[in-house]
Amino acid sequence: MQRVVDPSTGKELRAIPEDTSEAVEAAVAAAVSAQKAWARRPMEERAVVIRKAATLLRERADRWAALMAEEMGKPLPQGRGEAEKCAWVCDFYADRAAEFLADEEVEVDGARAYVAYRPLGVVLSIMPWNYPFWQVFRFAAPAMMAGNAVLLKHASNVPGCSGAIEGIFRLAGAPEGLLTAVFLDNDRTGELIERPEIAAVTLTGSTRAGKAVAGRAGGALKKTVLELGGSDPYLVLEDADLDRAAKACAAGRLVNSGQSCVAAKRFVVVESVREAFEEKLVARMAEATMGDPTDDGVDVGPQAREDLRDELHEQVKKSLAKGARCLLGGEVPDRDGWFYPPTVLTDVAPGQPAYDEELFGPVAAIIAVADEAEAVRVANDSVFGLGGAVFTSDPSRGERIARDELHVGCAFVNDHVRSHPALPFGGVKESGYGRELGIFGIREFVNVKTVWIAEG
Question: What is the pTM of this model?
C-alpha cells in the first residue's frame, strides 16, 4: 500500500494499493500501442494536446496546489506557482519542439545526408515528491512532444499527484496509455526497468537511488538521465552587496521549505564580511513564517515526512557537537506535524554533516574563508555539482568564477539558482548526468539518426 499522510498533522489520510501484475502488463502494452500511434502524428497535432494540458494546469491551479499541500506540505502559493511553471514548460515545448527537432542537412560528397531526431519509444520516469508536478512536466512535455510515451512511477507519498497528472493528459486529448501512472515498490520498479518495452529511464531523486537505477538500466543497456542530490555553494565575496546577497540566499535556502536539490545550502563567505552577512541572513531567515501550508502568509511548510525531518535534525545536532554554532532555529517545534524552523549554522567546517552532506531542509550552513581562491576551493569541495552562485559587485569577476571555476551544471551571478524552460538543467559528479529543459532536454530521449541518400 502507498499511504498518504498529512505532513502538517501526521495523520494518515488514505492508502492506495499497489498495481497488480495484470495492471502493469496492461499499462506497458497500452504505452507501447499509444506511442506508435503518437509518433505518427504531426508535430502540430502533438502540440495541441500539450497546450491543452497547459490550459488545464492554469485553470485548475488551486486544485493542484491543494493536492500538493495535502500530500507533501507545499504552501498553497508555491503550489499554484508550480502549476503555472508546468504550464509554461508545456507551452514552451509546444512552440519550440518542431524547431528543436527539425532535420539538419549535412554536406557530404556524392549523397544527400541529414540528421533526423526520432522518438525512442516508452520512457520510464521515476519521480520524487518535492516538486510532484514540476519534476514530471519538465521531462514529460519535451519527451511527449518528441513522440515518446511515458510510464510514471512517482514517489509513494504523492499518489494523488501522480493520478492527477495522468488525468490532465487524458483530459487534454492524449491517446489512452500515452502517460500512465503506475504504483509500484522499488523492487518491481527495477524489474520494469529491464523490460524490453522500456526504451529509456529518467530519475530525479537521491544519489543512492540514481546509482541503483543506473546500475539496473546499464545492465540492460538503457539510456538514462539522472538529476540527483545537490549541496549548492553560494559564494559571498568581500565586494558583494550584502543586502542583495542575504535576500537571494534566504530565498534560495527556503524555497520549497528547503526541500530542493538545487536549493542554496552552503554559504561560503569571505571572512571580512562574514559577521555582517550573518546578521543580514539571520534577519531574512527569521522573517519567514512557518505554519500550516493551507494558511495565508505561510512561507515554510512542514517537511514532507517524519523520517526526513528527524534525519535533518540529527545532522544539525551532530554539526553542533563538532563545533558549529547555531544562530537561529535548530530545535524541533512542540507541535503536531513534521515542522522544522528556518535555521542558520555558522563555523561550519569539514567533518560536520553541514559541510560534508546535503541538508534537505531549511538549514543554512555558513563557511568562512579567507579570500576568493579559498572560496572557490571550498565550493568545489563536495561530491555534488548541481548548482552554485557567486555574489560580487563586479559582474565580470562573477561571470569568470561562474563560467570557469565552479564545478556545477548551473552557475548564477548575483541571484539564486533556479530552472528555466529555455536553459539546460542538470549536474555533474554525484549530482547526476544528462540534461533537462532547453534544446538539450528534448534531445535526450530521441534517436539521433543519420540518413544518407546516395546520388544517381
Answer: 0.97
